[in-house]
Amino acid sequence: MSNVLEYWFSKHYRVTVVKNSDGSFLASVDVYRRGWFLDDYEEHCLEDGRTCLIYKVIVNPEPLLHEVRIDKVIVTGVKIKDSVETVNVRWIGYGDVNEDVAKKFFEESWRIVKCKPPTTGVWRFNCIE
């Protein structure tokens, strides 16, 4: 599908972009880090209370680029029992997302989760605790 694009900036992590006919987009960035480091988030759990989706919506984030308008960023994590992992950052906005813009989303997403993107393997992270 021409309205869905994938950009790989690391062997194991990618940016997937869905372009809509109205000029809007959703860019989904794979990230990973143990833990959750954001305040004021929402948590929705299954009935057992031990499996949860955690997310923070950042409305009107600081401008990252001049090429596109970002309406919101959603950082997503999962909690299973006592373990929490941050796994995804989604960018929602308007404009033309090309490879250069996708790379900026990739780099900024890792900054948001307080890590540098892994360059030498899937589990080699340089994160701020």
Question: Can you summarize this structure?
Answer:
The chain has 129 residues and is mainly β. Helices cover 11% and strands 50% of the residues.
Order of helices and strands: EEEEEEEHEE
What strand line-up does the widest sheet have?
1-2-3-7-6-5-4
Envelope shape? globular
How many beta strands in the DSSP annotation?
Answer: 9
Percent helix among the residues?
10-25%
What is the overall pLDDT average?
Answer: 88
Question: What layout of secondary structure does this protein have?
Answer:
Blueprint: E1 4-8, E2 14-19, E3 24-34, E4 42-45, E5 51-59, E6 68-80, E7 83-95, H1 99-112, E8 115-116, E9 126-127
Antiparallel strand pairs: 1-2, 2-3, 3-7, 4-5, 5-6, 6-7, 8-9
Characterization of the model:
- The chain has 129 residues and is mainly β.
- Helix content is 11%, strand content 50%.
- It has one domain.
- The protein has one helix at 99-112, and strands at residues 4-8, 14-19, 24-34, 42-45, 51-59, 68-80, 83-95, 115-116, 126-127.
- The longest helix is centred in the C-terminal third of the chain and has 14 residues, at 99-112.
- The radius of gyration is 15 Å and the shape is globular.
- The termini are far apart.
- The mean pLDDT is 88.
Task: Give a quick set of tags describing it.
1 helix; 129 residues; mainly beta; two-stranded antiparallel ribbon; 11% helix; single chain; 7-stranded antiparallel beta sheet; 50% strand
